[in-house]
Design brief:
Layout lengths: L18 H7 L2 H5 L7 H17 L13 H12 L4 H8 L3 H4 L4 H8 L1 H10 L10 H18 L2 H15 L9 H18 L3 H15 L1 H17 L1 H17 L5 E6 L2 H11 L10 E7 L2 H14 L1 E2 L5 E2 L12 E6 L5 E8 H9 L3 H7 L5 H4 L3 H13 L3 H12 L3 E5 L5 E5 L4 H8 L1 H5 L1 E6 L2 E3 L11 E5 L16 H32 L14 H11 L4 H9 L5 H14 L6 H10 L9 E3 L7 E3 L11 E6 L3 E6 L3 H10 L3 E6 L7 E10 L4 H11 L3 E7 L8 E10 L2 H12 L4 E8 L3 E3 L1
Parallel strand pairs: 2-6, 12-16, 13-15
Antiparallel strand pairs: 1-2, 3-5, 4-5, 5-6, 7-8, 9-10, 9-11, 14-15, 14-16, 17-19, 17-20, 18-19, 20-21
Length: 754
């Protein structure tokens, strides 16, 4: 969503210039005070990185007029709060050196090692590359950053620290940049922070964006909060005192702290649910930090004995953690004067994870914890970025996949073995299958939810037990792309379909070229060996293809005409001394279809992406058919009487090839029929029964919106039949229904035949 920032003045809380405060906070001395957790070697690396960055940025100033080096120092200071290592802090100090100072990756490798250089490179924008649009440039930059982040999560910590400091000092930037940078932060960086559990950073980024995008709304809402806070101070103090007294009586050791919804979250709730400020009741709350997990549940029991809980407002995120690792018990109670108050109960370790997410890994290490679960926070999502990249080389498509996963509102489902899996809200059976394993997704055939058979497009709900039925012969269906929710599933399906289409088109191209070559009197395609290497090289030069596989694929997709390539290949073989076989030449030309330039292709319905059956005429086995090699569409099969095919043949006859049915088709085929009926009660049911009674499956029915008062009207059906004889049997069944006046097959969408 693109939002234009208000043109009114920013609120007083946005500084005109924060130069003095920033200079004090962003001095190297202030940074070194935070580095007590580093050893002497680490401290030395950070000092060297500071000196190198200071020299590289010498003479450069920020918009505020401060020396530019204050910005890298502030970024490194934020990373030090997360207890990142010396390599990450060095990269934070050097993060703009490659982009702004002409320093190369090789320079950084020589001075600071490969890991620091890789971190800086992952953060560097792609300003030097040429892209078609600014959006494409931005997508490629994010792709590079996210992939670097997936390989080393420290990249995103540095990037988020960089963005946080830029937002804090945005008051010094030109107003024209406020909207673009704030929107980008809200849509990309804040969701990434949330996805990785960096909640403190997530909330701060949202607040700063709100402040700059809608300054007047921010100011008004801020005043309303201050007034409400003043009015309700006594009530909140009373609740806190009562809770402390009850917990002391119960012998629970607890640390209580007040909390308040952020202005942005209040604004989003008001905007999304069309509420006034007075209608937002859960602005205030308390956070209870307890020693052990069992104490959290005991504390909730104490609270519910003191106050009446609000139904539906209890959430257990300890038993089932959120996707980003967040754990807490939530409950909302009705306090004094009917004031709703939310309580969050968690342990100290959970609190650390709730505020710092994946950064808790380093903070835990600092405290000597061996909590492996927290060491892997966010890893599953980060790994999925690499999986998506493997199948999606286009930057914009990659970014589209990733955006889907950035802000999931999770549902929690179970495997048949009772393993809990978190899925984004709206996720389907297919998303679940791909989350289990890509092979499971590719082979999904059916599914059961809570023991009942359901369609694959069924959306999952909290608590569902999901069982996926797979088959070795099943494969992804293109229709799945219309309902899958996760980027991982979407990229896996697209990759499989592209690979399958490429492979099938290559096989079809090889068959078409071989047949076209026989029409030139050559029995077989030349082998790809040393003796024929020069011929293939010259043929590829003639067609402009890079490889033989690419050439065959292009022929199968209809991008190149097999007969033209075959004529050139026959000429090259003739130059080498391989003359056409006169007997083969005469036989092929004598038997070839008079309207086509190549031999016949046999089809049976099992070709998937490489062969399409035209919906204008819907050919079925038994029909006389022709094939059209559409440009980039592969082979499209029409009936030879189809009006669309006749027009194409008049304009582009060289692209038509002879096609014939296999003796044993592999599946049923759809056919369209129009049935004219006399109006009467239950006529549709009787007609449908006649179709299914002849063993045909109805896939689509269409009738006029208003048939009341009409003596007769048309029903249009699409159903599947085995062949033309089966179709005739269905039509015979229909004509025997008393209400049916006429039943005819639809050809080319408009014409009819009996």
């Amino acid at each position: 969503m693109s939002v234009t920032p208000s043109t009114s003045k920013p609120p007083a809380s946005i500084p005109g210039s924060a130069a003095a405060a920033n200079a004090a906070a962003a001095s190297f001395a202030a940074l070194t005070e935070k580095l007590g957790y580093l050893n002497a070697e680490g401290l030395d690396m950070v000092r060297r990185a500071y000196r190198y960055a200071d020299e590289a940025h010498l003479g450069q100033l920020r918009s505020s007029g401060e020396p530019y080096i204050t910005h890298p120092i502030a970024v490194a200071a934020q990373c030090a709060e997360w207890k990142l290592d010396a390599q990450a802090l060095s990269a934070a100090l050097l993060h703009d050196a490659m982009e702004d100072c002409g320093i190369t990756k090789t320079d950084l490798i020589e001075r600071f090692g490969i890991q620091v250089a890789e971190l800086v490179d992952g953060l560097t924008k792609l300003d030097k590359l040429e892209f078609n649009t600014r959006e494409e440039n931005q997508a490629e930059s994010f792709r590079k950053m996210l992939l670097a982040m997936a390989r080393d999560v420290r990249v995103i910590h540095i990037k988020l620290a960089d963005r946080s400091h830029n937002k804090r000092t945005m008051g010094d930037m030109p107003r024209a940049k406020w909207g673009r940078i704030s929107n980008e932060t809200l849509e990309i960086y804040a969701p990434i922070a949330h996805r990785l559990g960096l909640n403190q950073t997530y909330r701060e980024l949202q607040e700063l964006c709100f402040q700059y995008l809608w300054p007047w709304r921010h100011k008004v809402l801020n005043k309303a909060i201050q007034k409400a806070r003043h009015r309700r101070r006594d009530l909140m103090q009373k609740v806190e005192q009562e809770v402390e007294a009850s917990f002391a009586k119960a012998g629970l050791k607890v640390r209580i702290s007040g909390r308040e919804k952020t202005l942005y979250s209040i604004y989003k709730k008001m905007d999304g649910k069309h509420l006034s400020f007075a209608q937002v009741t859960d602005i205030y709350g308390f956070r209870l930090i307890l020693p052990e997990v069992i104490d959290c549940y005991t504390a909730m029991g104490v609270l519910h004995q003191m106050y009446k809980p609000v139904p539906g407002k209890f959430k257990d995120h300890i038993a089932i953690a959120k996707l980003n690792g967040y754990q807490s018990l939530h409950t909302t109670i009705v306090g004094p004067s009917g004031l709703n108050v939310e309580f969050q109960m968690r342990t100290e370790a959970m609190h650390l994870v709730a505020e710092t997410g994946v950064a808790a890994h380093w903070l835990y290490k600092d405290k000597g914890s061996s909590n492996e679960a927290n060491a892997n926070l966010g890893n599953q999502w980060l790994q999925s970025l690499l999986d998506i990249q493997d199948e999606t080389r286009d930057a914009t498509e990659f970014w589209d996949h990733v955006k889907v996963d950035l802000f999931p509102d999770a549902v929690y489902v179970f495997t048949p073995k009772s393993k809990i899996m978190a899925m984004p809200r709206g996720a389907t059976i297919v998303d679940f299958a791909y989350a289990v394993h890509s092979d499971v997704g590719d082979r999904t055939m059916a599914a059961k939810v809570n023991g009942e058979q359901v369609p694959l497009r069924t959306e999952l709900r909290n608590g569902d037990i999901v069982e996926v039925v797979t088959s070795a012969v099943a494969s992804p269906n293109p229709a799945w792309l219309g309902f899958v929710r996760t980027g991982r599933a979407r990229s896996k399906i697209r990759h499989h379909l592209k690979t399958m289409a490429h492979s099938e088109s290559q096989d079809l191209g090889k068959k078409l070229l071989a047949q076209a070559l026989r029409a030139e009197g050559i029995q077989d395609l030349p082998a790809q060996d040393e003796a024929h290497a020069q011929i293939w090289e010259k043929l590829l030069h003639f067609t402009g293809s890079k490889t033989k596989a690419e050439l065959l694929t292009d022929i199968g997709l209809g991008k190149r005409v097999a007969s033209i390539v075959a004529k050139r290949l026959a000429t090259l073989l003739s130059d080498m001394g391989q003359k056409p076989d006169a007997l083969l030449l005469s036989r092929e030309r004598f038997t070839a279809h008079e309207t086509v330039s190549q031999g016949s292709v046999t089809v049976d319905g099992s070709e998937n992406a490489s062969v399409q059956y035209a919906t204008c005429c819907r050919p079925v086995p038994g029909d006389a058919i022709v094939g059209y090699l559409g440009r980039g569409e592969g082979l499209v099969v029409h009936t030879d009487q189809c009006g669309v095919a006749q027009r194409l043949k008049y304009k582009d006859s060289e692209r038509f090839i002879a096609v014939e049915w296999s003796d044993e088709p592999a599946r049923t085929f759809e056919v369209a029929v129009v049935v004219t009926v006399s109006n009467g009660k239950g006529v549709l049911a009787r007609v449908a029964s006649a179709i299914t009674g002849a063993e045909a499956d109805i896939t689509h029915v269409l009738m006029a919106d208003e048939v009341t008062g009409q003596e007769a009207f048309d029903l249009r059906f699409v159903f599947t039949v085995r062949d033309k004889a089966h179709l005739e049997a269905v039509l015979g069944n229909l004509r025997r229904v008393p209400a049916v006046l006429q039943a005819q097959r639809i050809v080319s969408g408009v014409g009819r035949e009996a």
